Amino acid sequence: MAGGGLPISVTVVQGGFLTGKKLVFPLFLVICLFFLWGFSYGLLDVLNSHFQTVLDITKLQSTGLQVMYFGGGYFFFSPIAAEVLKRKGYKITILMGLSFYSVGAVMFWPTAHFSTLNNRLAAFGGFLVCTLVIACGLATLETAANSYAVVIGDPASASSRLQFCQAWNGVASFIGPLIASKFFFTGANANNLTNVQYVYLAVSCAGIAVAVLFAFSKLPEVAESDLQGSNIETSAVDEFGNPIGQGPIYKEYNMIFAFIAQFCYVGAQVTIGAFFINYALEAGYDKPTSSNMLSYALITFTVGRFFAFALSWVFQADFLLIIYSICAIVFNAAICVDTNKTGVIIMILLYFFEAPMYPTIFTLGTANLGRHTRRGAGILVMGVAGGAVFPPIQGAIADAANTRISMVVPLVGFVYVLGYVTFHWFTHGRHILRVKEIVIPGTEGVVGGAIETVHYDDEKVFDKDVQIEKL
């Protein structure tokens, strides 16, 4: 940014945003979406290890689940979801996502029912297709829900609100492995796929139930015309010298760097989750215990989300993420060199520092996009494709050496995240304590337009009929 004064963050909301009780039910529905994909993600990591045993496939082959989930679904389908969101709005997009999600989940039933060791590769291919359909649904939901959680309420608390919604994703993600440890890895179920059918049938029913809630609920919508008209006329520029929210999308460099950071973070998170059980097994734990410990890690992740939500009301989001990234790098390095069972405990603690990264990067990357807000949300969700690229690399290293050495792969991802948020912090005022945004009086109440956040350095800012003085 130009100038050397203390930056101001001014938010203009055309038509207003929801506050108080009006915000509760829409956020409840959004949280249901986060819960659904958290549960699916928790099951995914357990299935990765379970398929290695039941279908007799290698670690590298098992990462095909992650490739389909994060690559096929999120990377390739997120742009389609973003275009549907732009043309049809939030409600239609969410219903489309829930439809894909429920159909993909119910497809697990025949696939698991007809799976045998003789047709194991064909059966695994069937599971990959099921995972792809579910992932297309989740990519659609995530494109809509993350953006909706940000724009529906007070922009001054957008990051905190998304942290809170994402925290329920964590709650669901540790329930998945808990169920798996009871139904997948114990007794007669340790070497078959019978109960996989029932678990995913229940998942499909849950998706249908949430779809019914959305179908019959009157949700406030943010019109595309409001997004396109939300840019205020101002000479304010971003850290790269471009007019805020007004340039072509390929010049939204902060969004591009945030996309790479999201790609690296999700890649790191997914590889740690996918190989957690393998790491624990090599450390000396049995499979049921390893699955339970993965649940403890996801509980730690959830606690970290809520803790970060509380801290986000006090500290600036990018500064907070710098601290978390440094801690993640230190703990990740420790599990790469630890040869004892304590490495698993360190890995569980690493989940605490992963917790706020996704929602914080998403919020930083989609700020000040104006007419590009919805497409920007789709691009940031595409960053989840890092979960398709990192696991095969780590799987190849784990097969060639061991899982402990392969943990250097997520370490690279955390290093880039640290670089991005450090650059963002230095170019956005270097604030430690949270800077509250100024909202034009009269814009609160009902959602009717888009959020436009503009940062200023000048002593006074004049915008036509509105004068805002620096606090």
UniProtKB/TrEMBL annotation:
List, alphabetically, the InterPro entries matched: MFS, MFS_trans_sf, MFS_TsgA-like
GO MF terms on file?
Answer: transmembrane transporter activity
Mainly resides where?
membrane
Do you know which Pfam families this protein is assigned to?
MFS_1 (PF07690)
Coiled-coil spans in chain? none
GO cellular component terms given for this protein = plasma membrane
**Topological type in the membrane:** Multi-pass membrane protein
The portions of this protein that span the membrane are: 23-44, 64-85, 92-109, 121-141, 167-185, 197-216, 256-281, 293-312, 319-337, 343-364, 376-393, 405-426
Which Gene3D superfamilies does the record match to this protein?
A: MFS general substrate transporter like domains (1.20.1250.20)
Where can this protein be found? Cell inner membrane
User: In its keyword annotation, does this UniProt entry include Membrane?
Assistant: yes
Keyword terms: Cell membrane, Membrane, Transmembrane, Transmembrane helix
Protein name per Swiss-Prot or TrEMBL: Major facilitator superfamily (MFS) profile domain-containing protein
Report the source organism. Answer: Pseudogymnoascus verrucosus
Its ancestry begins with: Eukaryota, Fungi, Dikarya, Ascomycota, Pezizomycotina
